């Protein structure tokens, strides 16, 4: 499958396609034209075709796309079928909110453990996920290598933790620390969820 | 101040500038060149100058920027000094996590109340914020108009709630429902925090 020179903007739209197609599929829609898909997603039909062409293109123009087939193709491009192993570091409010409410499995991940620096929390079971002490991290990893760590810990220990994870061999970090992590190992992918940047963008827009 | 034709990408970088300048200021840095600022932010000096030119440009090239002045200019562009009134709708895990941990004030907002559909929660005080029943929303708004609503409620009631807020006169929605809200009133700004899209983007990147 083609995958070269796919721009960041196209990559960011793939989950949105998946989300919409999944909903259409659940609503029993079997076929959809690029025009109708574009309309419900707030894009243009030509943009959709261009996006899909980055991956070799799929579906038959004019006849519309088979929703289930297209959804599965995109799922496979994103890799949501891979169920990468993930751990969560920090079980404060955000960590707990994610454990309880977020569907990791649907997004391609299998959340297998949580870690925290607070010894009082160790051994606890939060929403089916066992909490280990952060000192156990390497020992745990040696037995069960994980691909991704979700960082929901405070800012101060975050940079060192990111380097520690990279050193262990973690391939991706989902970063909720509200700070930019500068990784020595550039092959570790960091995806930021910057609440402050998001809210300040809204602040700008309503202040205009 | 110039503000026309500012692209979405530039708008999204303004909070990041503010965040970095605030940190430099807190660390006692008084002056910084566009080159050094670019380096620590992972941008180029020319991009920074272009971004600032959208707002008329500030600082003296060659002499560097005065950190505090620049920070204040950007704060005023974003509007973080306005302290817009905000309410939060839905005090589940995400709602509580935001109330307890997120610095609304620093991002330009004054969080004044919370609402929930669960009568058992009404009257409760969460981190200094009083929880009202959702039926009280209009009555509350009549006395205390708010600019922004933070939607941390489930998906199902979300579209109707968004329209209700727009009808009341709310100008912005910070959307944590993980669904795209299609507003009838296009002047209401919606800023999405799509956890699923973010994690699936990471999934793609580590699957490459």
What does this structure look like?
The structure is a homodimer of 208-residue chains. Chain A is of the alpha/beta class. Chain A is built from eight helices and nine strands. Chain A has helices at 8-26, 34-41, 45-53, 67-78, 93-101, 137-143, 158-168, 195-207, and strands spanning 31-32, 65-66, 84-89, 109-116, 125-126, 129-133, 148-151, 172-175, 189-192. In chain A, the strands form two sheets. Chain A has a seven-stranded mixed β-sheet. In chain A, strands 1-2 form a two-stranded antiparallel sheet. In chain A, helix 2 (34-41) crosses helix 3. The mean pLDDT of chain A is 91. At the A-B interface, helix 1, helix 5 and helix 8 of A face helix 1, helix 5 and helix 8 of B.
In short:
The structure is a homodimer of 208-residue chains. By secondary structure, chain A is of the alpha/beta class.
Query: From the helix content, strand content and strand pairing of chain A, which structural class follows?
Result: alpha/beta
* Widest sheet, order of strands of chain A: 5-6-4-3-7-8-9
Largest interface in this structure = A-B, 55 and 55 residues
**How would you sum up the global shape of chain A?**
globular
- In DSSP terms, counting alpha (H) and pi (I) runs of 4 or more, how many helices of chain A? 8
Beta strand count of chain A:
9
Enumerate the spans of chain A where pLDDT stays under 50 for 5 or more consecutive residues.
none
